[in-house]
């Protein structure tokens, strides 16, 4: 039974004082029983075995017994918290200091002493306080500075180098002194060895050196703005960035370099997590792009990905240069991919953190890039930009006009539902006057002509939808689009006056023409007035080159010649009257009087004439039915 074994082993230790080998064997058996066994450790403490081993470590003259006794103490303390509280005294720390400073103490004895300090301060605020008050932490820092000598050390097999093992134990103990729980006082003391750590990182990038140092640095600067600023002030952040660059270069050939790069990344994040403004120092090393490359490695686990993404988030939180670098290296798609494909909650939170930064920075960068785009020294480029902006204004105006037209048509539909509109004497007389112009709908020639005109009108409406209405929905400027427009100032003034005049005319004419007789609508289709108005009175001024390419192309080629006055007679009046003011009546009359209409204005005129003929036919038919009644 376990209790019986421990009682017998304790008796063996007491009665074998003159036989160090027997004592060593008994100690080894005790720690093998108590290792990771809290109940056995507690029972051994209750029977007085813990304090006996403590006294044996101090009083024995045999080095092998001292080492075995200290190691057994460490195992028992680590296994049971009550044993830790029992031995966490200033007296024990002072005894351990003596073991460390004695000249005749071997490296292995020092290592066992450091191990006991480690288990006493781990997860123990009282132990962290004792290690500081007794001056033990200062001795540990001295060992950190003096034990390691990279030039004389053989790192090919760190398990056989006692000095490296001692230095590694010191690093682990210092980490426990400042972390879990965080101890700011100990952090402020430990930062005194940062210059030494920086020098080792600059001279050696072996995992056996980089990993312990990065762990110590990361825990010492964590959540401590004073220590973080000091580390940055001595160039520590720059050193870490350089180490990361070197490891990323080697990661293509070595899997271990990739893993070590993640360790360096965690240390970088600890240095800037509480003060993202310090991440500006990383921009000149293109750290964000290197982190994105590291994130794309397929050998990373979820925890490593979280560390990398959080570091990217802290780098880009306030630094515009890092933000630009993230965008330029396709960081956003990568974050979105991580967000959509991952099932881990912490990883999703980290990716969301970066995307939130991206949301703010894309707004700022878009505004700045737009402002910078206006500062163009080349007059030609500036003119192109002004033309693009002018076209955007036209699109917006077209959308507003279409909205007004639809509102008017809705009002007319409501009036039709409320009641019938009676025809007065003047309307009947007007209908009678149109009888002479009635077109026979069954005439084959007329039917063919009408069919041709309907096709032209439908093509025109389709072109209008593609070139005006679609762009008006999304009016954001497109850098790759080549737009040809008229002069911005003159066109804008002319367009404003034409729009105001045409809208008033439309409101007057459309009210008369959209009334129904006996419940029958007077419109040919649902949107003829809107399309004819927009195409006739808005688009001619929007971009003549866009709709009249053939005619105006010829005009451009001949306008610079000496025969420009002769060629003026053969130009379309609709294309050359951009600077004049017209309404729906005067513009139609002008097109009818023109002998050389372009294809665009010819199609518009034919569509309007077809529309008027159908209005006359319906008006005559309604007037006849009213007369018979």
UniProtKB/TrEMBL annotation:
Coiled coil: none annotated. One of its GO terms (biological process) is meiotic attachment of telomere to nuclear envelope. InterPro entries: ARM-like, ARM-type_fold, TERB1. It comes from the Eukaryota. This is TERB1 protein. The gene is Terb1.
């Amino acid at each position: 039974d376990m209790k019986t074994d421990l009682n017998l082993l304790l008796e063996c230790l007491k009665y074998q004082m003159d036989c160090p080998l027997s004592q060593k064997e008994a100690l080894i058996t005790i720690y093998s029983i108590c290792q990771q066994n809290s109940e056995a450790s507690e029972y051994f403490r209750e029977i007085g075995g813990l304090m006996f081993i403590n006294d044996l470590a101090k009083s024995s003259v045999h080095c092998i017994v001292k080492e075995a006794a200290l190691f057994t103490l460490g195992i028992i303390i680590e296994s049971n918290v009550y044993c830790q509280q029992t031995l966490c005294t200033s007296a024990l720390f002072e005894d351990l200091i003596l073991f460390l400073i004695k000249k005749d103490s071997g490296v292995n004895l020092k290592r066992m002493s450091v191990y006991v300090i480690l288990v006493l301060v781990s997860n123990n605020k009282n132990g962290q306080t004792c290690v500081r008050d007794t001056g033990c932490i200062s001795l540990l820092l001295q060992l950190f500075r003096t034990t390691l000598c990279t030039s004389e050390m053989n790192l090919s097999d760190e398990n056989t180098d006692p000095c490296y093992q001692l230095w590694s134990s010191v690093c682990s103990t210092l980490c426990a002194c400042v972390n879990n729980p965080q101890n700011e006082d100990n952090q402020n003391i430990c930062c005194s060895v940062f210059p030494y750590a920086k020098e080792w990182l600059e001279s050696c990038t072996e995992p056996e050196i980089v990993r312990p140092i990065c762990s110590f640095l990361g825990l010492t600067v964590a959540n401590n703005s004073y220590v973080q600023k000091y580390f940055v002030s001595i160039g520590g952040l720059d050193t870490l960035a350089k180490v990361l660059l070197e490891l990323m270069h080697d990661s293509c050939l070595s899997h271990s370099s990739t893993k070590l790069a993640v360790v360096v990344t965690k240390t970088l994040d600890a240095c800037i997590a509480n003060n993202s403004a310090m991440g500006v120092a990383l921009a000149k090393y293109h750290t964000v792009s290197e982190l994105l490359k590291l994130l794309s490695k397929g050998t990373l686990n979820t925890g490593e990905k979280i560390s990398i993404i959080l570091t990217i988030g802290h780098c880009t939180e306030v630094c515009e240069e890092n933000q630009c670098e993230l965008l330029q290296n396709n960081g956003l798609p990568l974050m979105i991919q991580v967000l959509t494909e991952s099932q881990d909650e912490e990883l999703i939170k980290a990716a969301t953190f970066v995307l939130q930064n991206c949301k703010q920075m894309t707004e700022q960068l878009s505004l700045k890039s737009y402002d910078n785009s206006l500062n163009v020294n080349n007059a030609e480029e500036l003119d192109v930009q002004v033309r693009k902006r002018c076209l955007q204004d036209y699109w917006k105006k077209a959308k507003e006009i279409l909205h007004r037209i639809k509102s008017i048509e809705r009002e007319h539909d409501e009036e039709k539902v409320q009641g019938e509109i009676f025809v007065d004497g003047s309307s009947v007389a007007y209908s009678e006057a149109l009888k002479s112009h009635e077109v026979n709908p069954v005439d084959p020639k007329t039917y063919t002509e009408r069919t041709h005109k309907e096709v032209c009108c439908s093509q025109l409406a389709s072109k209008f939808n593609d070139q005006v209405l679609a762009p008006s929905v999304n009016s954001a400027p497109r850098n790759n689009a080549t737009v040809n427009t008229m002069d911005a100032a003159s066109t804008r003034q002319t367009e404003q006056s034409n729009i105001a005049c045409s809208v008033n005319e439309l409101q007057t004419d459309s009210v008369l023409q959209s009334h129904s007789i006996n419940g029958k609508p007077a419109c040919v289709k649902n949107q003829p007035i809107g399309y004819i108005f927009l195409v006739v009175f808005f688009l001619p001024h929007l971009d003549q080159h866009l709709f009249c390419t053939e005619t105006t192309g010829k005009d451009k080629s001949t306008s610079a010649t000496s025969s420009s006055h002769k060629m003026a007679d053969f130009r379309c009046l609709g294309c050359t009257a951009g600077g004049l003011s017209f309404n729906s009546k005067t513009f139609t009359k002008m097109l009818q009087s023109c002998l050389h209409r372009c294809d665009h204005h010819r199609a518009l005129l034919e569509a309007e004439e077809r529309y008027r003929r159908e209005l006359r036919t319906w008006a005559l038919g309604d007037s006849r039915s009213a007369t018979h009644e």
